């Protein structure tokens, strides 16, 4: 199928984007890498009257380290994040997750901000941002507001973004040297969206004890959520066969997967337990 007709504007500044969003409201859509939006237009799942191309707005680009804070511009591509030495050093979880996103051609064009705003329940970045406790910087003509990743994702393809707002950047505190991260995903074929995936982060003591553990899943619910019961089962403990089993058991309280085209709900819960064991083993290594 072909996309329905739409008007197109290449915005040159955030001010121009704000004006266009104020004027056109929900009949306009921002266009970043186009890797999700164009597909949804072609499938006639969306029919905006105007596409506002934001890819030439310099202040939305780049990855910047300021002290312990990393600022990732909305237009940073998946590939830029994957090959960034600063990201590998300060936020290794993102480096671990990036290769799981689609294929090279899509990673070269698709953007961090586009993925977060799209909020696909099987996408990698949302779960990573939840465990990293990232802050999302949302801008509009009315000003700037910061929303924590945990509040940003509100349901299936639903976020805290208002129709007149743009996600401008994401701010994340660097994870220190005593932190460990792991990203594990199962998909039917390399490059497909996840059947189930998990992002995990914890502080590890010299004795191998995990604390401040954060575990979030993708592909098992409408939005990424922290697996609180499972985290509590491991807090202050060393990773062992017993603690992995306890964390897996607790996942029954944390997750209520829905069946999708690829797996039944019970299969998803089983796979979530399998990858939790792998992620915890990686954290402890
Ligand atoms: C074959 C294929 C496989 C894929 N597999 C995966 C995968 O495994 N994992 C994964 O995570 N993704 C996958 N994707 C999607 C890909 O990661 C997209 O890049 C991403 O979802 C959207 O980013 P984009 O820059 O292309 O955004 P666009 O498609 O341009 O926009 C997506 C949505 O976000 C809005 N938007 C974009 N930028 C902003 C912003 N700064 N502020 C507010 N709203 C904004 C747009 O208006 C639109 O509604 C796949 C895509 C394809 C085509």
For this entry, give a set of tags.
alpha+beta; binds flavin-adenine dinucleotide; 35% helix; 14 strands; 3 domains; five-stranded antiparallel sheet; 285 residues
Describe this structure in words.
This protein has 285 residues and is an alpha+beta fold. The chain folds into three domains: 47 residues, Uridine Diphospho-n-acetylenolpyruvylglucosamine Reductase, domain 2 (2-Layer Sandwich); 116 residues, 2-Layer Sandwich (Uridine Diphospho-n-acetylenolpyruvylglucosamine Reductase, domain 3); 104 residues, CO dehydrogenase flavoprotein, C-terminal domain (Enolase-like, domain 1, 2-Layer Sandwich), CATH 3.30.390. Helix content is 35%, strand content 26%. The strands form four sheets. A five-stranded antiparallel beta sheet has the order 4-5-10-6-7. Flavin-adenine dinucleotide binds next to strand 2, helix 2, helix 7 and strand 10.
CATH architecture of the largest domain: 2-Layer Sandwich
Runs in which pLDDT lies below 50 for 5 or more consecutive residues are: none
Strand numbers in spatial order across the main sheet? 4-5-10-6-7
Shape: globular
CATH fold topology of the largest domain = Uridine Diphospho-n-acetylenolpyruvylglucosamine Reductase, domain 3
Number of domains: 3
Helix content: 25-40%
Mean pLDDT: 96
Strand/helix succession: EHEHEEEHHHHHHEEHEEEEEEHEHH
Provide the structure class.
alpha+beta
CATH class of the largest domain: Alpha Beta
Distance between the termini: 49 Å
């Amino acid at each position: 199928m072909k996309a329905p007709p739409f008007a197109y504007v290449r915005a040159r500044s955030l001010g121009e984007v704000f004006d266009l969003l104020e004027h056109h409201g929900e009949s306009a859509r921002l266009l970043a890498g186009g890797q999700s939006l164009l597909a949804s237009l072609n499938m006639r799942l969306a029919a905006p009257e105007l596409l506002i191309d934001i890819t030439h707005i310099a202040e939305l680009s780049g990855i910047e380290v300021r002290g312990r804070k990393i600022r990732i511009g909305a237009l940073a591509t998946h590939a830029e994040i994957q090959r960034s030495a600063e990201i590998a050093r300060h936020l290794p979880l993102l480096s671990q997750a990036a290769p799981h996103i689609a294929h090279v051609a899509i990673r070269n064009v698709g953007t961090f901000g586009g993925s977060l705003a799209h909020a696909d329940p099987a996408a990698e970045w949302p779960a990573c941002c939840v465990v990293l406790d990232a802050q999302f910087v949302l801008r509009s003509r009315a000003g700037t507001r910061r929303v924590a990743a945990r509040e940003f994702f509100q349901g299936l393809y639903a976020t805290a973004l208002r129709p007149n707002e743009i996600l401008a950047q994401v701010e994340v505190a660097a994870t220190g040297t005593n932190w460990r991260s792991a990203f594990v995903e199962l998909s039917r074929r390399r490059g497909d969206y996840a059947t189930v995936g998990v992002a995990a982060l914890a502080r590890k003591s010299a004795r191998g004890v995990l604390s401040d553990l954060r575990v979030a899943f993708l592909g098992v619910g409408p939005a990424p959520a922290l697996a609180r019961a499972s985290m509590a089962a491991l807090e202050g403990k060393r990773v062992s066969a017993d603690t992995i089993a306890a964390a897996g058991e607790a996942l029954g309280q944390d997750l209520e997967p829905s069946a999708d085209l690829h797996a039944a709900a019970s299969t998803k819960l089983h796979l979530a337990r399998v990858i939790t064991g792998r992620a915890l083993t990686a954290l402890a290594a």
